[in-house]
Design a protein that fits this description.
It contains 3 helices and 38 strands. It is mainly beta. It has a 22-stranded antiparallel beta barrel. A 6-stranded mixed β-sheet has the order 2-3-9-10-7-8, with no helix packed on it. It starts with 7 loop residues before the first helix and ends with a strand.
Amino acid sequence: MSISFHLLPSFLCKLLLWSGLVGYTLLLQGQEVQKTDTLPEVTVKEFFWFSDGLTKVDVDKIEIKKEGQLQNLAQTLAENSTFYIKEYGAGGVGSASYQGHNASQIQVNWNGFSLNSPMHGQSDLSLINLMTTDKILVQNGIESLASGAGGIGGQLSLQQKVWFPAYKFTKVHLSSSISSFQNFHSTAQYSWSHDSIYTQTSISHQQAQNNYPYLWEDQKLRLQNGETSQTYFQQDFAKRYKKYHTFKGHLVAYQSKRNIPSLAGVQDTFNLNNQLDQGIRASVHYDLYKNNGHLSINTAYIDETIRYNEDESRFYSFKNRITFEKEAYKDLNIHFQTFNEYNFAQTSNYIFNPKRTQWAVQGQVNYEYYDFLYVEGILHQEWLSDLKWLPILPKLQVKLGVDYPMNLTYQLGKNYHYPTFNDLYWNEGGNLNLVPEYGWSQELAFSHSFLTKNKRFHINNNVAAYHGKIHNWIQWTPQLTGLWSAQNLKQVNKSGLEWFFSIQGPKYISINGTYAFTKAINKKVIDPLDNSFNKQLIYVPKHTAHLTGKISFQEKYTFILRQHFTSRRYISSDHSHFLKGYALTDLAFTMVVNIKRQRFLLHLEANNIFNQNYETIAQRPMPRMNWAIRLHHTWSKSKR
């Protein structure tokens, strides 16, 4: 197994040429463009965006300001990573594709527990509010093994920090925004903390008409039945006892109501399709830090319901996880974890109401030699009640130059993704003979940070190349009976390159960019008439790029320019139909005023300023040119 690195020099030349021309992509004929109503507001805290090469994208190093958190997870990923986000229009379901993988192969973790539905395997990114999130880790399929199997396509880990200051600290944050298409969004958050107690209460409400205009086959039409409404509540509490013991609790309740618009070009005034999502997520955590060791005991309960028109489905999960890590000898650390889950689903679409019990054990060893060499090894084993065979999963990582301006990381690992309840038990099409998708993958990443000769610009470059094979890829296909059924059909070869860079200049000038080249090819067909052999998977763009430039004055005023590009995506396996590529341009202006304990922020933005048409999913048009105005107020007080 080897990576085709002999192709990198010529490819990098093409990449540099392409990056020089990215500003002219709007002149290309047939390009379609746009951006969603709300954009994440981020400021760079450190120049090192990415740790461990490119295997881990640590958004904690890109401070997600509380005054900018009116966006959901889907919109944040679109701005700050190489994820390709698919949306059913503004306010619709949001899903992600990463390195050629689909949404069900990507795990979404909240405080250490998966939010993916055991029924369809996905987590709707539009339902994940970032109002309380402090840290997002974006990990590929190798790196995600540290949290457990299943994330063969990667993992998004949402984490929240608990702060125990030496003095009493109180903060109140209020946000409100108004944007195009009668979109209103308001949040309120109250935090209080001391040396041993932390509490935070957050609430958010958003509603929108989403009656935006779009062009379809030279017709000027307007989206119908696109109304959405979402309410989100979260309560957090933490208690520290004698500096060694920490107890934490999190409770989330949400409800989302959204109508389902007709397909593009269809003006159906009688369309009443709608979807209701509601759920509860609760977790309790205990941590003990003593004698260079850390013991963590965690429990979670997740209960979610989806009602599409009158068809209702529900699942609930009980999850437990115990982890222990300790410095065994000098810089040698050992890590052990075990967890179990119980998942239960209820729907009239299954032949019976299924349940799944899952157990896992994992051992991990890592060693660091004088901040120069880092080696990590993992062995992971799982058992599932409704699947007979699951392999032992290994992972190896070697990194040279851990804390040096230049470092090199190599990773090799195996992961798998088990069939969902829909794949196995759907009334018409479920297949009880399915086996898990599995595959090996490897990655080589290079990171380099330096100052220019005149010491005016700090430049950080991160480049990673990856290669892997996925076996038993599950796909729903039509059968001779006319019904669609889940089958282990494909072997997919994936390879690609990711490039991240940042330039920090004088007088608050900064430029940040990402580029991804993704090749995901089907290398196996069962039916000789299947024309998907040796072709790119559907909805996987070969090229995506994002560029953000900022200029600040007097630490009060900031001008922002964002440019995004996505290449064509095929929507038929034989490549006979595709969605055109698109390039989006956004402008924003931010003004900050500090008055004693109060901070006011005004944010103005214009999205898709060239009024382009585009789709991320076929026949689901996205908004054209739109605008937003946000006002944020933060009051804080500390008392010793």
